[in-house]
Amino acid sequence: MEPLGEIERKEEEHYLVFDVGGYPLAVRISQVERVLDDDAPDSGMDTLDLAGILGCKKERAGFRLQIMITDKIKSVQVDRVEPIKDLRLAVWLDFPKIMRRADNKMIEGFFFDGSRMISLINFERINRGA
Amino acid sequence: MSGLAQEGGMSLEAGLRSRWLVFAISDRKVAISLEHMVIILKSAEIFSAPLTGKEFKGIFYYNDKAVPVLNWEFLTGKSKAPQDQGILILEQNDDLLGIEIDEAAKVEQHPFSGETNEPGFWIDLEPEQGLWALNVGNLFQALRKG
């Protein structure tokens, strides 16, 4: 029987890879509405302090992601954005059970591409107070 | 397990249970029972990941799994990890845990099996040698609770 994480991954296999505080992170493209330069005009929408949630410092002004979280679009500042990726060649690794805590439920697991461990973020779980 | 081979009055099972990997960390001589050992890796690239908690130093890839690496500071209160380290992988109830160990670690045999109901992470294994055994069961239990 395939692990649930692997099944979900096959259903949606395109991701936006970005950096916050030196961590390589990924989000499902279906959750991303737009990617903007950080100096683009601010539309006044709610912001989500992802660097603060992850306990790291935002390294430099880079980009803003507009993410759909529970039917509401929020703006998320990130340091760097990579071209949209198909991560089928990366190995999917489930998040270790022994490390699971209430505050890291937003991290579903990791894509390992041989040189990086990219954390898959589920923004819907952040909204639930994870 | 019945019908165990007897060797010098000690059962094979008891003999295996009393084997320990012994190495030094900071000023402490540490022993880890081989009962839970999966493998010792000569090296592994450890990656940091967000929100993994102070108990863990990071994760590494092993056998299609992300394996957490124990932060020695969580156990000893000191940030120093063993020098020239390899990584010992322990397993309990399907959970894997990597522990950095000194490459100069040696296997020794001690009469105590390591099974105890005492609380805490350390067991005074050989007081006259200053040798402390890691209570692997209590460690896994504490890590699961977070």
Domains of chain B (count): 1
CATH superfamily of chain B: CheA-289, Domain 4
Instruction: Assign an overall shape of chain A.
Output: globular
- From the N-terminal CA to the C-terminal CA of chain B, the straight-line distance is 34 Å
Q: Please tell me the overall pLDDT of chain A.
A: 86
Architecture overview:
The complex is a heterodimer of chains A (130) and B (146). Chain A is built from three helices and eleven strands. Chain A has 130 residues and is mostly beta strands. Chain A has one domain. In chain A, the strands form two sheets. In chain A, strands 1, 2, 7, 8, 9, 10 and 11 form a seven-stranded mixed β-sheet that branches. In chain A, strands 3-5-6-4 form a four-stranded mixed β-sheet. The two termini of chain A are 28 Å apart. Chain B is 14% helix and 44% strand. Chain B has helices at residues 12-17, 72-76, 136-145, and strands spanning 6-7, 10-11, 19-25, 28-33, 37-41, 56-62, 65-70, 85-92, 95-102, 106-109, 122-126, 131-134. The N and C termini of chain B lie far apart (34 Å). The longest helix of chain B is centred in the last third of the chain and has 10 residues, at 136-145. Chain B has one domain: CheA-289, Domain 4 (OB fold (Dihydrolipoamide Acetyltransferase, E2P), Beta Barrel), CATH 2.40.50. In chain B, strand 1 (6-7) and strand 2 (10-11) form a beta hairpin. Chain B has a five-stranded mixed β-sheet. In chain B, strands 5-8-9 form a three-stranded antiparallel β-sheet, with no helix packed on it. Chain B has a two-stranded antiparallel ribbon with strand order 1-2. Chain B is mainly beta. The interface between A and B is medium-sized, with 26 and 23 residues.
